[in-house]
Amino acid sequence: MNENLTIPAIPHLKDYLSILFKHKWLIALIFLATLTVSLVLNFKAVPIFSAATRVLIEPENPNVIKFEEVLGQSVGHSPEYLSTQYKILSSRALAGRVVDALHLDSREGYGISRKQVQTFSMRSLVGEAIAFLQIKLGNPNVGGRKKQPNMQSLTPRRRAMNALASRLQILPVSRTRLVDIVYESHDPVIAAQMANKIGEVYLKMTLDLKYKATREATEWLNVEWNKSRNLLLESERKLQDYKETHNIVSLEDRENIITQKLKNLNKVVMNARTEKISLGLLTGKLRSEKNIEILSSLPEVIDNDLIQSMRREMISMLNKQSVLLKRYKNGHPIVKRLKSQIGQTQTRMNKEIKRVVRSVMARYKVASERLASFDKALEIQKKEALRLGRLTVQYNVLKRTSDTNRKIFENIASRKKETNLMEGLDTSNIRIIDVAEIPAHPVRPKKTRNIFLAGAISLFFGFAVAFLIDYFDMRIKSPDEAEEIVGAPTIGVISDFGKMSNRAERIFLKNMEASTLEQFRQIRTLLAFRAGNSNKVFQVTSCIPAEGKSLISAVLGVILSETNKKVLLIDGDFYREGLRGWLNVKGSEGIQDILFDHKDSSEVIINYESGNMDVLVSGINSQGDQFASLLTPLELKPLIDSYRENYDYIIIDTPPLLAVSDPLIWSQCVDGILMVLDVNQINSQMLRQAISKIKELDVNILGLILNRMKKTEGYYYYGYGKKYGSYV
Fold it and tell me: How far apart are CA 371 and CA 363, in angstroms?
């Protein structure tokens, strides 16, 4: 295999230019055909005039049943509002009003829609082309369009409405509330009149719709006003009956009084309970204790002023007694009298202590009775508070119902007054800003632009067709493509030189065109350079039959013999003898006879026209095609090697690689292979398949010869022929 593999080339601009040059006549045909159609349609088209009325659509707030903006936004500020107005402008209802106002259904010729008028634009041209292709592809619904009803089956009014809709365009002005009402007609006066009339009818239609909505709202509000009034009267009557039944004058004041009473009673009960508990503890101690001395130490006794006075008096008399006893004896009258006084004071003090104890017990009894009385009063007050709470719940329900009905009634009454006022107003949020003027120039057809676009589109389409054809054309288009697949350089490009009268004449150099002869000489030069001094045995093969390898082998042999080199030309195709016919040599014996019948080479080899080239044909063997199946490199190689000393070049014409396996056997006996490719037959897939057969063998592919290349085909040959054709 050749070690000098070529790197895949990046497509160059000249590659694309060569494709366009190759299909220049097809591109020119498409360009001229499209341009001709464009010119004809442009000059046959009826001129169309366009007039526009500009309208302002201002925001409109809802005036009916607003209830503090129930919707949350103004209707006129939403995008849906403007979209709705655009739909109204193009609606059948508006179209019907315009038709009725101008009596268009009785106007002769108006029922013809814009699509029926012969006009031309690039959009229509492209659309018709797409429709044609879809019909050819079997699509019944071309472009997704629905079948239009037969115009003759429609009423005059319906036809006039359809015609108006087909000529009307609604074009909103970006980022504004302005919209253009555009009408198209072949008559500029009619275009302006219709645009203005549509604007007027639209303005009146919005007023009618607004008046209708206001009137319906007024009627609805009257009904709702009566309903809300009756509901309010009924709810207020129920509230008043409830107040009279339960003797409620002011429920809020009554509730405050009861709440305050309940709070005070709770406080009194807590104090009485605390007093009873403290007295109860003290009474328990008094009942359990009989010692007067211990009783006298109780707080209630200590706090008694009379008892404390008696105790101080006792202490004074006891002190006095102590003094007297130091002076007198116990029987002394003074001492006796003092003791009598002390006894009387003690008796009185004991009585007072007992009285205090009885007083505490009496207080405890009173506290118990008071607590029971307070508890009873508290329970009664709690029941009254609960009863008032139940009354309040029902009262609040009735009052809320009455308040709600009153609010609804007041709102409806307010809206009712507003709608009554609006019925007399004749205002609209639609304003006509600019009226349509009679156009001076038609908008279609734009002849210059259409012709320019037709030319540009036709060129683009022509280029696309050229590249598409080239993409699906799998043939070898240039030497670079073949070199990338094979991995060997191109050493020659041969034009088709099949103009001679017979096969034998074609190899005579004197009958060849100068350019063709120079092509073979170039092959000879490059082959000598590629082969060098050591390589002298070459195999000529191809991918498939009829690529011209036998003819090229014969001519190449003659060309090589011109340089005083000894050349042996061998026909290695045992199935079809090609060289015998091309060279018109005599004799039937050949290489098969040498290998099978052991003939001597000198008896079989034929000298061609007493020159430097000898010819060894394949010969005819009795074994027929079986000889090829028995052929091996072990038999061929020694024979070929025996010729090396006698010849400078040995050229072997072998069968195609994709036909039989013989070329693989021959490749083991040669120094290099020459691949002949017919650019009109071979394609890249065939070439890759053929190369894959010899890829695993150690074979040297010297180069490629592209055969039957037209002189005007491909940049490779085109550049060579134009530059040097006149010289040679």
Answer: 12
